Amino acid sequence: MTLRSRFAALGALFIALCGFAPAPVSAPARIAAPAPASAHPLTAEDLSAYLDGMLPPEMERADIAGVIVVVVKDGQPLFERGYGLADVAAGRPVDPDKTLFRPGSISKLFTWTAVMQLVEAGKIDLDADINRYLDLKVPPYDGKPITMRQLMTHSAGFADASKDLFPPDIKHLKTMRQMGEVAMPARIFAPGTTPAYSNYGASLAGYIVQRVSGERFEDYIARHIFAPLGMTHSTFEQPLPKGWSADMAKGYRTASGHPGPYELVQMPPAGALATTGSDLGRFMIAHLQDGEFQGQHILGAATAQYMHGLQFQPVPGLPGMALGFYQEPANGHRVIGHAGDTGLFHSDLHLFLDDHVGLYISLNSAGTGGAGALGTGLRTSVFKGFTNRYFPAPKATPPTWANAKADGRVLAGYYMDTGRSEASWVRIRSFLLGQTKVSSDKDGVVTVSSYRGVSHQLQRWREIGPFQYQAIGSASRMGALVRDGRVSLIMRDDYPPVEALQPVPASLSAAWNLPLLYLSGGILAIAALSWPLAAIIRRRYGCSFALAGRAATLYRSTRAVCCAYLAFGYLWWWLLNRGGHASSGDDWIVRLIQLLGVVCVVGTLAPLMNAGAVFADPARGWPAKVSSAAIAAACLACIWFIVTLRLIHPNIAY
């Protein structure tokens, strides 16, 4: 028996004795097949030829400044290379040994590893109410508390929260306890039921590490993970330790633009790590070797194996969540990983567990054309290309499912992301403008408006099993959870299993709300523009205004209200699209826009009274009656949107 197999056997025994095995879940459906003879040898030479030919032209095309790629294999670094520039103005190249990048949410893997160290030490129970470890209160949802397991699988039920995630300067950084209290998101799902990615949940776990261990979170990670692994160029400290800034890569929107500032992260356990490619390679090796690196153990083998195992599977047949890591599709190979994004840096980490191979890629630019985007950008192209080159599988084309047409009709409709905020004005995006349309053609082939391929093309999905789909022309998979003939969730394997699509209530469906929005906006715009235009025409031809007294006042007041509603809508659109990180510094803008909204709502009395007066006056013709009724209806529609989207609300957390 080999040392590794002995560890595996002991691990299984340890898990059984400790009794912390997860609830049974089905394994992800795979199209398993032996690797064909055309698989390339995974060597440094072949990697160099492949990546050197792929990355430089793609970086130039997408306007990306610098990239780090690290590949480890069988407990050793195999390939570490920097491409492009860490600092464009200074001409400083990317060095995988020295250059610091910000891997964003890959930081969470260190937080989750720390949690599992404390689980292993008997200091944290994965299934206990987390309030046991806190000095603040996280209220239950319908009487159900949150557990650490649910935090680690992003199934605690928290709404999305992005406000103040990236503060503008050090003086705006809060302690983890302060953030735990003031930034606690709304609970929108019962715990353990629905995937909804949560930075807050990861930060809460980091705070628990701090409280249970008695050490500052940053110090705990440095002492118990960085030090044993020899990660001497890694830190969670903000700002960077003295002397480290010279090795920090600049972050860019595009390489041809100006660099951004060092991004501070309000919730350090969720994304504050700064590290080099070489250091990340050591972390990957440790997890690939069940917690061991060069004789140092950051986890016991049993704990590491348990951490890497499937814990929460929202949709049967698709990848699910391990403890902190998520499963990924890779031609039938067992792969776990995590992505990470700040505003400027974009990274992916992938562990091929049974092949003892790790891949890490990080970009210091978002680039153009969505090059840095999760699921469709350059890093996804590298992962897919790497997998198909070194771990290929024959293309499989299962037959179309017999009930494809009927099942397609069940799926058709409008959906919204589970990773959303329901608190205030950001509902404009999640409840109206950001809805996904699912359609089915006459043959039962399904399209999902938000599901795009690597080249950003709309994918077409063919059913190959009960509510299990494969993208036409690729191996990508999609699945739906259907209960009693109604869709609960839709997911795909090209995106992490931390979010899903959920049907939209009929009252909020974009199928009728968007046309209503456009029609109402058009009516208000015509009414507003016709006001000065009619005055110009009257002046040009020497005509007098036909209305006087109360009728004239109501006419002018109605047009003024139309202008106010248009300004109200434009200001929300501007706020959503102006870029930058969401901040409390915007609160005064939100309140001013809301004040204008109050004026609009109160002012709606004018269009209503005007319509009543017009219909009561036999001298007013049908054009006046139709226009006054249309304007009044458009204003009432605006109030509908104000109410359902919570555009005027005391709570402006998001």
Features of this protein?
about 650 residues; 18 helices; about 15% strand; seven-stranded antiparallel sheet; disordered N terminus; alpha+beta
Structural commentary:
The protein is α+β, with helices and mostly antiparallel strands and 654 residues long. It is 39% helix and 15% strand.
Topology record:
Layout: H1 3-18, H2 44-62, E1 66-73, E2 76-87, E3 92-93, H3 107-120, H4 148-152, H5 176-182, H6 199-213, H7 217-229, E4 251-252, E5 259-260, H8 268-271, H9 277-288, E6 292-293, E7 296-297, H10 301-308, E8 326-328, E9 335-341, E10 346-352, E11 357-363, H11 378-390, H12 404-411, E12 413-417, H13 427-433, E13 436-440, E14 446-452, E15 458-465, E16 468-471, E17 477-483, E18 486-492, E19 501-503, H14 510-541, H15 549-577, H16 587-603, H17 605-616, H18 622-644
Antiparallel strand pairs: 1-2, 1-11, 2-3, 4-5, 6-7, 8-9, 9-10, 10-11, 12-13, 12-19, 13-14, 14-15, 15-16, 16-17, 17-18
